[in-house]
Each structure stands twice: as structure tokens, then as C-alpha cells.
Specification:
heterodimer, A: mainly alpha, B: alpha/beta, Rossmann fold, nine-stranded mixed β-sheet, five-stranded parallel β-sheet, globular
Chain lengths: 84, 610
């Protein structure tokens, strides 16, 4: 199972790459509402990058709910725990 | 802007180097943003290509991948992406964003989903013909518009069966299956594209095979947002697309410089001797035989091969001439430098001898040390990393993006012409219209005069040198020309050509023998610099007019096949000449013509042409 700290760091890195932000600026509060780069297309790609990276498939509800860094970390954490 | 502030290709390559093959899309996205931070005004024109993408699915995520792969090849892309779902309407509307963008290359990525959805427009599904026609008919109407209003080359993806079929083991017997629809569409796409100039078929199926179908498509993003290509497939397609972009702006490799030991054969010639090197039907020699075959396939398309090796020249020549398994022979080589001097100097010398820019040359050398030295000395040279494992050589060489040759061979274009002549009159006229509009845009001017003291040496030189567009390839010396013209037996025409982009100088010669009834065209040639500009029609028209004015009723001409002048074979029949029983070509002057192309302006005096 992926270590939680490692997972958090990797999520921040991916979000930063997709939205073109330095990792330091990828705060938990960062969300689709607060970032103009977080377009629906980037959301689609971000979700798929997370799925590929962590080997999970998100449900329809999850995909919609993943619209902030905090939500991503919580959802991913839950999913990875249930795998473990 | 001062030249100092301009970036060079290494800036682009450094950014691309941050993304390695196989990395996820997010790494490309991030690198593409780094490209965005380069101020656009510091990117010089010579590094830029304009690429348009028309897709039937969401291609936005493909843009960063394409731009980064282009940067890896030292290229900056200005891109245009057609609005989602509008790939056909963009192509058909000459006022669309596509045409305003004026691309160097346009990629059309219509995927098999379009065929699938049309097929299932009714249940049960409809058969191949209406499905294929339903897509290809508007597509080719669009390409007709592009011929007139577009710019650059067009590259159209073929169709790929995206998943395993449920059509059963008897599917191969049926024409109603989806597999048949896809095959049928590909067949027609290939045929119809092959009849057009400046259009190319992109083998998406080959790229899918390369990455494996199960890894090529991302079904989650496909269903969620029509992003069908996986990260992996985007990378593989981008790499190949970049080759087209390089070729479209004339940055392809023109000459491959080859090392010998452990590159063209295994082992070291100086130590192992001609019978000891690995080259032959059995492993390990077979690896090198296959590699040489691939290189010869490139050579056949017009890429020059040259050798640059630290060896004793006479020993290498012995292998080139006498080794039974050597496929690359002296006749295939444009030039070679086999000596003990440093490779960078030798490659510079090869570039000088072949008159090819170093940025159009590519070095294949197994020695990492030599590669590093040469790249450091000649930064503009392409020096790809040859795999350490020689069994990979043959497969590797095909993956080099800069080895795309767009220009067709004479044989191919001949075949194209035959096809074109058999096409319906309507379509033929369509293609003629586009050629004309191209020529009109050039703003051609010609100055046709009889040879004089000033033009004599250039006339003699052209007569001696011109091989391709030369009806008779008769080499006349200056004394002969002076004697015959003084005696009134010959009229030697010399034509200068200019267009909007430059002065081609004296590039056309014709020798006419005036007679009472008939004028005979003894020689007629064009420098290869002006082939395809229709200026030859102007020169012939001038001779025809003067012959008619002098009272002649017939123009005759010779065509002598020299083995190298295929490009001129259709010239006489295209201008109304027919072959008489005595082997001469004859054209009556009682009928109008040969016609002066009305897009060419006749000027006189050197001032006017400059």
C-alpha cells in the first residue's frame, strides 16, 4: 500500500503539473471554484492521471466530488485504505 | 528585437528533456507550460511550424504532448485546434479558423467511432458502403476546398478497430461487419489520398500496434469526455506527427552520415579483417544486414548516405566492393571520408562537398564518445543515440522523426498523373484550378530573349548540365552555337524567371530550327529550380507565336529518353503534340496555342526581371 505522506506529495505534484502551479501553492483548499486553470477538461485529465497513478477507478459520484485537493486526498485515502 | 535575445533549438530541447518516454500526460502538460513561458517574440521563425489539428474526438490534451515532442526535435509549434465536433465543417468552409491559421501541416484525426456511430444509426446496423461514403464523401469535398484555399500538407489518420469484435468467427465471410467497414474505409482512404498531391495517409494502426491496443485507448476518458487516446498513444502519435511537421517546413534529414565499425557491421575492420567482421545471413551478422536494408530503403526515397569512419580507406573500399554480404555499396554513397582525422571536421567537409546544411545531416555512430564530441563541435547536427544493443538497430532507425521524405519519386508522380487523367473531367478541373491558384499566387515573370554575348556562357553551362527537364539532352558547345546562330540555322532562346520570392536567373533554354513550313524544336530544357512553375509553357508559346508569325504551319520537336528525363515525358503531349510515324512530335499551328499561361507576365530587359 502506498504510504500516506508519499501519496499526498504525489497528488500535489500531479495537481501542480496539470494546473501549472508550483507544488507549494497546491494547498488543500485549492479547488475547481478557486482556480481558473481547473477547467472541466483539466478535471477530466486530472482524474485520469490519479487513476493511472494509484491504480483506482473512480465512480461517477467520486469524479464529480474530486473538485478540491482536500477532496482528492480524502477520497484517495479512503480508497487506498479499503484496498489495504 | 536584437538577435541576442533569440532562443535556439537547444532551449526547446532542454525543456523537452525533462519528460522521458513513457511518462504520464501530466509531465507533458507541465513541460508545455514551461514552453509557454518562453516569450513568443524570442522564438525565431526558422524554429517554428504551424500545425492544425482537426479531430472527431477531444484532442485538447494531445496539444501539450505534441508541442513537447516537437521541442525535443528542436521545433516550436504554433497550433490550431478545430472546435470540438467541427472537423468536417472547418475543412469545408474556406472562411473557417483553419484557413485563417494558414498551417504548414494539417492533421485530420477522425476515429473509427465516427464509422461505428453511423453504422449503428439504425438497428440492425447498416452495411459498409453507405457508412464509408457518408464519411469519405464530405471529407474529400473538404479536401477539394483545402486544395484551393488551404496551405501546406494534409495528413489523414487511417481507421483502427478499437476493440475486439463480437462479430464472430464467420465475420471474415461477411461484408456487413464493422471490421469490414473499417477495412473498406481504409482501402478507399488510401486510394483516394494517393491521387492527390500534398496529402498523406497517417498509419495510426501502426502506432496502435506499437503501443498495443489494450494500452492505446483510455476508455474511461473516452466515455467521460471523448478523450480516446491514452497517454501512451498520444506520445507515440506525437513523435510521428513531428516528423511530418519537420518535413513540411523543410527541416528533414537529407543525408545520413554512417560510421562503420559496430554500426554498419559488427566488429572492427582494422582488427578483425574483412572476413572477420560480423555481416551475413547468420547471427550476429544478420542484425547488420537488416540495418543496411532499412538504410537502403531510406536511400531509395532520396535520403543521401555518406560514410565517416576512422579506418584505412583501401580496406573499407575492399569491403564495399568485395564483401559478399555488404548491401550498401559505393554506388549508394553520395560521399565518404575514411581517414583518421576528427569526425567533426570530416562531417563539415562532407556537408561542403554535398552542399547540404549541417542541420540537414544526421550522424549514426555507435561510439558515445564520438557522438558527444561531434555534437559539441556541431550543435546543429542531429546526433541520435544509437541503441547499445545492435539487434535494435534495424527497428530503431525507422523511429527517427526527421527521416520523412515528402517528395515523391518520378515514378510515383508519373503514376499519380496517369490516375489523374482517368479521373472524371469535373475532378480534373478541380485539381487544375488549385494548381492555377497556386501559380497565380507566385507572381511569375519571365524574360525571353535570344542568346547574346552576356548570356552565352550560362546557356552553354545549362546545355551541358541539365538532365531532368531536358527533351533531347544534346550538349552543344559555344562554337557550335555561335556558328549555327550566325548562319541563321538556329534561334537560341534564353529565359529568365522571377517570382515573388526571388530571382531564379537564366533557367530555361530552347533551340529552334526555323523552316519555311515547320519550325523544329531541337533542344528544350529547364533548370530543376523552375520545374513545376509552368514557365516551360511560356517558352514554348513564344516559339509557337514566332513560328506562326514567320508563316510556319507546324511545330515539330524531338523527345529523346535519356533515362533521367522522365519529368519531361508528358511535356509535348500536354501541349498538343502528337507522335508522328517518323518518331517526331508534331503540332499544328493552324489551331491556337501552345497557350501562354495567363498567370505569367512577359517582361523584357534585365531591369524588369530583377
Amino acid at each position: 500500500m502506498t504510504d500516506r505522506t508519499q501519496m499526498t506529495a504525489r497528488v500535489r505534484e500531479i495537481v501542480g503539473q496539470v494546473l501549472d502551479l508550483p507544488v507549494a501553492q497546491v494547498a488543500d483548499e485549492l479547488s475547481a471554484g478557486s482556480s481558473s486553470a481547473w477547467t472541466s477538461l483539466n478535471h477530466l485529465m486530472l482524474v485520469s492521471q490519479l487513476e493511472n497513478e494509484f491504480g483506482v477507478v473512480f465512480t461517477n459520484q467520486e469524479v464529480r466530488a474530486l473538485s478540491s485537493v482536500r477532496a482528492i486526498l480524502e477520497t484517495l485515502g479512503r480508497r487506498l485504505d479499503s484496498v489495504a | 528585437m536584437s538577435p541576442e535575445s533569440e532562443i535556439d533549438s537547444s532551449t526547446l530541447q532542454r525543456i523537452a528533456a525533462g519528460v522521458e518516454a513513457g511518462q504520464p500526460w501530466s509531465a507533458y502538460q507541465s513541460a508545455a507550460r514551461a514552453l509557454d513561458r518562453i516569450p513568443i517574440e524570442t522564438v525565431p521563425q526558422r524554429l517554428r511550424a504551424r500545425v492544425a489539428l482537426l479531430g472527431s474526438f477531444t484532442l485538447d490534451p494531445f496539444l501539450p504532448v505534441l508541442r513537447v515532442e516537437a521541442a525535443r526535435a528542436g521545433l516550436w509549434l504554433d497550433t490550431y485546434l478545430a472546435p470540438y465536433g467541427q472537423f468536417l465543417s472547418e475543412l469545408i468552409d474556406p472562411g473557417s479558423g483553419l484557413y485563417q491559421f494558414q498551417p504548414n501541416v494539417t492533421f485530420i484525426a477522425a476515429d473509427a467511432d465516427v464509422l461505428w456511430n453511423q453504422r449503428w444509426a439504425e438497428c440492425p446496423p447498416i452495411k459498409s458502403e453507405p457508412v464509408v461514403g457518408g464519411l469519405l464523401t464530405p471529407l474529400f469535398s473538404g479536401l477539394d476546398v483545402f486544395d484551393r484555399a488551404g496551405s501546406g500538407i494534409v495528413v489523414v489518420n487511417d481507421f483502427v478497430l478499437p476493440r475486439r469484435s463480437t462479430e464472430g468467427v464467420n465475420a471474415f465471410r461477411s461484408k456487413g461487419t464493422f471490421a469490414h467497414t473499417v477495412a473498406h474505409a481504409n482501402k478507399h482512404l488510401r486510394l483516394r489520398l494517393s491521387l492527390r498531391d500534398n496529402t498523406f495517409l497517417f498509419p495510426l494502426a501502426d502506432a496502435v500496434t506499437q503501443v498495443g491496443r489494450n494500452h492505446a485507448f483510455n476508455w474511461r476518458t473516452h466515455y467521460r469526455g471523448h478523450v480516446t487516446w491514452s497517454d501512451t498513444l498520444m506520445g507515440a502519435v506525437a513523435e510521428r506527427y513531428v516528423g511530418f511537421a519537420l518535413a513540411a517546413i523543410g527541416k528533414s534529414t537529407k543525408c545520413i552520415v554512417l560510421d562503420l565499425d559496430n554500426t554498419l557491421w559488427g566488429g572492427v575492420l582494422g582488427e578483425d579483417g574483412p572476413s572477420g567482421i560480423a555481416l551475413g545471413a547468420q547471427w550476429p551478422g544478420s542484425e547488420f544486414v537488416d540495418f543496411q536494408r532499412e538504410l537502403l530503403d531510406l536511400q531509395r526515397q532520396g535520403i543521401l548516405l555518406a560514410l565517416c569512419s576512422k579506418n584505412n580507406e583501401h580496406e573499407v573500399l575492399e569491403v564495399l566492393r568485395d564483401h559478399p554480404s555488404m548491401l550498401i555499396r559505393e554506388a549508394h554513397l553520395a560521399a565518404y571520408r575514411i581517414n583518421w582525422e576528427d569526425k567533426a571536421s570530416n562531417i563539415r567537409a562532407l556537408a561542403g562537398e554535398l552542399n547540404i546544411g549541417l542541420d540537414h545531416m544526421l550522424l549514426i555512430d555507435d561510439s558515445a564518445h564520438e557522438r558527444a564530441w561531434v555534437s559539441q563541435q556541431i550543435p546543429e547536427l542531429r546526433v541520435p543515440e544509437l541503441p547499445a544493443d545492435s539487434s535494435q538497430y534495424a527497428n530503431w532507425v525507422g523511429s527517427l522523426p526527421s527521416l520523412i521524405v515528402l517528395q515523391q519519386t518520378a515514378e510515383d508522380s508519373q503514376r499519380t498523373r496517369q490516375y489523374q487523367e482517368s479521373r472524371s473531367r469535373e475532378e480534373y478541373r478541380g485539381s487544375m484550378d488549385s494548381v492555377e491558384s497556386f501559380l497565380r499566387a507566385l507572381g511569375l515573370k519571365v524574360d525571353i530573349a535570344l542568346v547574346d554575348d552576356e548570356s552565352m556562357s550560362r546557356v552553354v553551362q545549362l546545355l551541358a548540365k541539365t538532365n531532368q527537364f531536358n527533351l533531347t539532352t544534346r550538349r552543344h558547345d559555344e562554337a557550335t552555337i555561335r556558328r549555327r546562330t550566325a548562319a541563321g540555322e538556329w534561334r537560341v532562346y534564353a529565359m529568365r524567371v522571377t517570382d515573388r520570392f526571388g530571382d531564379f536567373g537564366l533557367t530555361g533554354i530552347a533551340i529552334a530550327e526555323p523552316g519555311a513550313e515547320a519550325w523544329h524544336v531541337e533542344s528544350f530544357l529547364m533548370s530543376c529550380r523552375v520545374i513545376g512553375k509552368s514557365v516551360e509553357s511560356a517558352l514554348l508559346a513564344r516559339i509557337g507565336d514566332e513560328a506562326r508569325a514567320a508563316g510556319a504551319g507546324v511545330l515539330t520537336a524531338d523527345f529523346v529518353d535519356s533515362g533521367r528525363n522522365q519529368v519531361a515525358t508528358t511535356f509535348l503531349p500536354a501541349h498538343g503534340f502528337t507522335l508522328a510515324a517518323d518518331g517526331r512530335w508534331v503540332r499544328s499551328l493552324q489551331t491556337p496555342g501552345p497557350e501562354w499561361p495567363d498567370w505569367i507576365e512577359a517582361v523584357t530587359g534585365k531591369e524588369a526581371v530583377r
